[in-house]
Amino acid sequence: MMHSGTPSLLVQSISNITGYQCKSTVMTYLGAPIYEGRAKIGYFDTLLTKLHNKFAVWKANFLTQGGNLVMVRHILSSMAIYLLSAVVVPKIVLQQINRLISGFFWGSHEGKPKHNWVSWKAICRPILEGGLGVRYIEDVVNNFRLKSLWNGLEKKSIWASFIIGKYGINNFCPS
Fold it and tell me: pTM of the entire structure?
């Protein structure tokens, strides 16, 4: 995968030397899509399919509401965490993840979703605030972004050091 502005002659010669073929579609590395330009919803179909398949297996086990809560809090939320920390994910994908997780939590009866007695935002509040302690996916993404910003301001990350060195930023921290 090369930049779209790379001359075709250079791409062809690199392909001949290395034996690798040029690929213009999205690729995945360690489960995260590698792409050029804006993130598209289709790049995250693998994650959504993986979550959907997990739900299908667990629904067959007839878990109680408490069992569903444990699965949501500890397993399902963490399945998406790595991807969310590595790549910028479109909001629609985040909403679909939340919809899949809430649908699994509430369950279904005879193919129809059960009635949601409480909003998903209320369930995602901390236990001390009356929620069930489930992590809201959009909040997790915001936390990752704030953590990256903080690490950049404190110059503790490799990327912050790289950017500061590349662009010659001396006083990065606001006063």
Answer: 0.69
